[in-house]
């Protein structure tokens, strides 16, 4: 073999040759051309990585064929199936055997079949067996497929078997002609210089014995087994001519049959079969013919019956079942299962699916059968008749379930519903299937029913009735609609001595308060920050004062709030309701006698004082108890919750922009405060809602919880109601880390990533270590000085923030800068102090919050307010600011929104610009992406955020650290 000069004429050819171990292969070669255009003796074997210099003369098909042939070249095969480097001669002599050949050869033939399909107009030659010259003799490719007919001739002593071949209508003589089967899997036959393929899949092994033999003889002693195995299989797949036994063809109209099968202790399954005459078959796997053998020993006769099956028709029946909600479980045996629902909120059992679709299936021609010897199931729909009668403080429910001719009191299904037992025994012994949807839809109906022998619900569980009202006739329906559509609730005039004008949505909230009061419900006002929850509540308190008859003793209300909001509430009460007598119950000199409360209309105290003075407050009966920022009692084991839940009042309200701050569990304490018993016990709430919603992402449970709490929660967003607010522009600023910062970041990330990849199985300790790692990475993304005090090489984000501050040119513009890290704020403080830049500052340790706020609001030279996001995220009205900088992403995006709402709230006259600073290629980018992926679920409840840190899975940690 010599080098072929690509500058001179050459031709790419394909050469068929027999490898001594691997069988027939095809190789691509370039061959130099002689002056007359014929092939010279100079040639070169080419591969994908050596063909480039000849590529200008090659087609796309040629390049693809060469790539396929690379894969079956002996060197590549050895590399794939032998781990160590070895010479081909040593591999084949020392390691290769028949077992390896039988494993490798089918894979080689798969590639050869792809190549042969592309060689129709390509030059193909036979390789010389002597010297390996690739173009010894040209091979023609048959333009039409050949056909095969198998013959059987049975006589008194034997059965002879042989094939005949035809090409273009003429019989081919192929026996004793040195023919070769070069591909076995789907036979290709090389005969007298021509390659033939066949009009149907043909195993080459069925031809090979006859290349040098006229027939195969099967003696009478073994013919029965031979007929049962080989002959029947051949008749199914090929044309067969027989003498001495009969081959009949049967074509019958088929019937699709669905059979219910299942052991006593197993979930029943559906099996599909097709009946052709007396024969039953599972769904075909592309087999248009099935053969059955009958042997009449007395007559010494064999009969093969070919059943022609309508494969397309059978596939259509399967498609119909798929459209109706079934999916293949085991196609070989015709086993089907109910497909996982895509749009439905509930899973459906096999029997429920049958019961639901039985009439439709019969109309489509399906026959329904039950396996004999097993339980007998009722096949039909279950329907529920339910009506509600309203009493003073509860609802009586009358309910019956109909299964065919049986009408069963719904209360008899109580234990089945609560224990999720789907099978219900009817009086005639048949088993009825309770619809899966009923377990989710009605379990709370039974759980909260106060009557074990009937169905009776407390008025506060009106949300459960609303959820099932599509099945009921509820006399309370009009009131329910009012409760859900607060805009339609009766208009209540504002208090006469209320100094201010309620906006339309605030008036609607005020009306909603009156409605809750009328029907003795508690409620949570969960409006967005900045929409005036304080103002609406003050209007309510002023109305309570004015509604008292002249001379009637005052019944004060109690307002409990965080210390940081005392100043704001005191100022707002004086502004909007100056006639309201307010007692600030704080400080060492506060009263120790609850009788003193009776001289006031409103007692304002803090959560800390409420805990300390539990004995004092618990002795007094208040008109309203109101919790501001009610998420402060989210922990049911906290002293605040334990104390406050024992306080007594006529009415209860909770105010919070984020009632679900970290977990769905936060909701239970606030609802237990406003409407005790609404959500059951805390343990029940955890098992029925928190765990399914947060751990299992159960959207059905989330929707059901939302239905229960919806009547008692009023939430409006600024996008919905505060259309008069100026626009706000939000933008993410991506900050590249500098080289030193990036190097330190990557080093730290690698260390914690190794813990994740190489450490023990994830557990509480391991996860804590990884969360610590995430905290350190977030700090490094901000400024490495937060982690290493002696670090002095700057930060990309820090520089970007300073540049943005410089770009805010307007002298009257003011900027809020939020960070969750006090250390981060300290770095900016040091910078501003060095350059004599005036700023206000507020974090959890700031003792005089009012002074910091007043400095920013009233001092025109103080344009910057550095705020810890936890300390300043609530209770501040900073509409003087028109720029908000969020220095680092918080796990909970609702907390970021609270920070933004310090500026973008009622009273703001200017456009507000919000900038979030994210370090490029850092964990911060992944936090933002993970926030977006995880916040869908809880938006179905009240806020847009579920517990982020608590729900971090090992997969999430992997994403954050990779």
UniProtKB/TrEMBL annotation:
Residues 800-956 form the Helicase C-terminal domain. Keywords: ATP-binding, Helicase, Hydrolase, Nucleotide-binding. GO terms for molecular function: helicase activity; hydrolase activity. InterPro entries: Helicase_ATP-bd (IPR014001), Helicase_C-like (IPR001650), P-loop_NTPase (IPR027417), SNF2-like_sf (IPR038718), SNF2/RAD54-like_C (IPR049730), SNF2_N (IPR000330). Residues 514-677 form the Helicase ATP-binding domain. Its EC number is 3.6.4.-. Signal peptide: none annotated. It holds the Pfam family Helicase_C. This is DEAD/DEAH box helicase. It comes from Sphingobacterium corticis.
